[in-house]
Amino acid sequence: MSRADRDDLKVFCGRASRALTERICRYLDIPVGEGHTDMFPDGELIIRVREDVRGRDCFIVQSTYHPVNAHLMELLIYVDCLRRASARRITVVIPYFGYARQDRKEEGRTPITAKLVANLISTAGADRVLAMDMHAEQIQGFFDIPVDHLHAAPVVLKYFESVRGELGEIVTVSPDVGNAKMAGKYASHLGCELAIIDKRRKSGTEVESTTLLGDVTDKTVLMFDDMISTAGTMCQAARLVMDRGAKDVITACTHPVLVGLAMERLAEAPISRIVVTDTIPCGDRCKPIQDKVVELSVAELFGEAIFRIHHNMSVSSLFRPTNGRDLF
Fold it and tell me: Active-site residue 115, yes or no?
């Protein structure tokens, strides 16, 4: 990247994604943008950008995990700050998009909050959105501005290919029917069989896994999902496949939300490894399961996407290997 490109490209971060932004900027060989978030005594936020952004191509990296509302509000204020400072283009980089699960009306008199958040981001002044593994593909259509939707699959697949020799015979298991498409794609790229669990949800925090379609006997089970939240689904599924003769269980997800009873459940579950990415930092909160957690970084994937957006290049080609087949 030339000196002119480095001067024109600015990457800022909110408080939720400092470590990830530093890794992204190391990949791009540029410094993290000089911006700072302060809080007034009453809890209001103020953001100060301490360098010239007039006419620059600006990116803001901010995940919207817990506390979701605080991180979302900080992101919106950051966009407004850069817009009023005359940035040429503002791209919001959201490694984890909060409120994504509220993407439709499942009953009367309920909101579609994912659409509301999309409207807020556009209204604040963002010109473009770059996100990873949003809970539902249709959320891209909630925005009236361009959206580049990344997948963590290349990073996750690279890890499993690197440890494939130690896993023995493997099978990809979908922990519920709704996840079968994603699990099938991983099975295809890893060259293994697919099994599916029929999951019935009793409540918002309790699930019951009863039926397994497929053979897991004496195999290492790999289970993939876009996020692990309360871990009820994964842990129930892990016990089921072990009861059906599986040799080992390894889970993987893009977003380690890990709330509620997740830590206790994962610590007690028959799961040997929990592979996650740094869209949400693990940090001290993952100490109860630190012996199981493998944290992968998606910084290079985001860095390459930012580079391509800045230079008006294709982002979708990131998921098109030499064989011409899309990863996801």
Answer: no
**Strands (DSSP E) found in 179-266:** 193-201, 207-213, 220-228, 248-256
**pTM score, whole prediction:** 0.93
User: Tokens in use for 16?
Assistant: 């939720």
Catalytic member of 10, 115, 199, 219: 199
Q: What is the pLDDT along the chain (328 residues), one digit of tens a residue?
A: 666 567 799 999 999 999 999 999 999 999 999 999 999 999 999 999 999 999 999 999 999 999 999 999 999 999 999 999 999 999 999 999 999 999 999 889 999 999 999 999 999 999 999 999 998 889 999 999 999 999 999 999 999 999 999 999 999 999 887 788 899 999 999 999 999 998 665 555 555 657 899 999 999 999 999 999 999 989 999 999 999 999 999 999 999 999 999 999 999 999 999 999 999 999 999 999 999 999 999 999 999 999 999 999 999 888 765 445 566 6
Question: What letter represents residue 159's amino acid?
Answer: Y
Which run of H or of E encompasses 277? strand 273-277
Nearest to 61 by CA among 119, 132, 6, 120: 132
